[in-house]
Amino acid sequence: MLTSKQRAMLRSMANTMDTILYVGKDGVTDATVKEAYDALEARELIKCAVQQNCDLTAREALDELCSRVHAEPVQCIGRRFVMYRRSNHPKIEL
Which of 32, 53, 74, 84 has its CA 20 to 30 Å from the CA of residue 91? Predict the structure, then answer.
């Protein structure tokens, strides 16, 4: 579990990041989960977005993705959300 200080630090790091994962009209598919898993393993912190034709809200997509890839939710604003998972080779010191 992340503390509020850790979450604040991760939020500030995510501010300058580009969105690398999009949840489309099919929602959270197995392919989306695999992409998120691989991205988290490589980067630890990723920014995602829900496209307009998706039935899920950003919060629903965030919750589902986090539970399926064992990540921590960091932030959810509008259609964008950020999640974090410590990898086997940590790059971010909390």
Answer: 32
One-letter identity of residue 11? R
Q: Is 81 helix (H, G, I), strand (E, B) or coil?
A: strand
Structure tokens at 13: 């790091």
Q: What are phi and psi of 12, to 5 degrees?
A: -65, -35
Ordered per-residue pLDDT tens for the chain, 94 residues: 889 999 999 999 999 999 999 999 999 999 999 999 999 999 999 999 999 999 999 999 999 999 999 999 999 999 999 999 998 778 888 8
